[in-house]
Amino acid sequence: MTLCVTLSLQVFAKVFSHEALESYLPKIQLVIQESLRVWSSNPEPINVYRESQRLSFTMAVRVLLGFRVSEEEMRHLFSTFQDFVDNLFSLPIDLPFSGYRKGIRARDTLQKSIEKAIREKPLCSQGKDYSDALDILMESAKENGTELTMQELKESTIELIFAAFATTASASTSLIMQLLRHPTVLERLREELRARGLLHNGCLMPGELRLDNIVSLKYLDCVIKEVLRLFTPVSGAYRTAMQTFELDGVQIPKGWSVMYSIRDTHDTSAVFKDVDAFDPDRFSEERGEDKEGRFHYLPFGGGVRSCLGKQLATLFLRILAIELASTSRFELATRQFPRVVTVPVVHPVDGLKVKFYGLDSNQNEIMAKSEELLGATV
Fold it and tell me: Is Lyase found in the keyword set (predicted)?
């Protein structure tokens, strides 16, 4: 039984509510800060897509699920999850060394590690200052007079990680690539942070990053929207026709599966001018190209079936952009920008090789806070 069947939409509303996002925020920021510190300490260029996958995986495990695992355990979990994802769409041929067999083995290993983390979780929850997604799922099930089995918990956990993994890594990579391509956009982000009192003498003011002032950063919102318009991580989604209808003279019978294309919608919509240009100002209050009609801009799908985690995803991207603008120097490590492919999600063919340089002077403070708030072994 999957998470979507087991648990109601009301439960997910709690997981991604304003209050929940507010409590996740400082933990997400620390995970991002620690990752950028590691990237900048590497003498060689990093593979941004690969490291963004590691970053989004770490965020899901340590923040969304509240697991306290060592760095060694995290590396093992990430490697196993990668094997699971890489073989997810293998042909169902159960032979030695087949992708299917590798995927099954990775799934079993992953579930064993997750079960260990779940069983240890109550021992680590004393003094926690927030309820993570797994806490909310378990508490909501109890409120409804049921209790999730260990198997349901493991499957729910894997689904939450999966939901926060590939698409977030794709969007994070696209964000970094566009900030590299458009240094004037990066400088305007810095100007907005300075104007809002969040950036002083090149440093992000400690303790000032809250959900309300992040939402107030209008140009940042435009940048994230434009990244998701031009580089939507997934191409589209499926829906089932609830009743027979007609579209452009073609009848679609009730019960048929229908696929809609997000990328084609963004590319062909008449509301967007010069669709191939990276132009965050198209989402400004003055222009508001996305306000000219429904379903022209839908990076997370549309209607009541839109992505439930879209607020968490955009919050993550906003914090990443803020940290990149305020604490990092980075440059392309190749002569040209790589070609972008769209399968299974949007990503550069070479992963995007980038050299990161030193962060601010608060590295020791970042590491200490990480250990305190996330229980990480860094």
Answer: no
pLDDT score of 265: 92
Q: Which has the closest alpha carbon to 203: 11, 337, 358, 98?
A: 358
pTM: 0.89
SS3 for 294?
coil
From the options 1.10.3720.10, 3.90.1150.10, 1.10.630.10, 2.60.20.10, give the CATH code of 3-374: 1.10.630.10
Q: Which tens digits make up the pLDDT trace of 179-194?
A: 999 999 999 999 999 9
Q: What is the pLDDT of residue 292?
A: 81
203 belongs to an annotated ligand binding site: no
How confident is the model over 86-106, as a mean pLDDT? 91
What residues does 347 pair with on adjacent strands?
A: 341
Closest to 164 measured CA to CA, from 62, 68, 240, 263: 62
Q: What is the pLDDT of residue 72?
A: 94
CA distance 213 to 211: 6
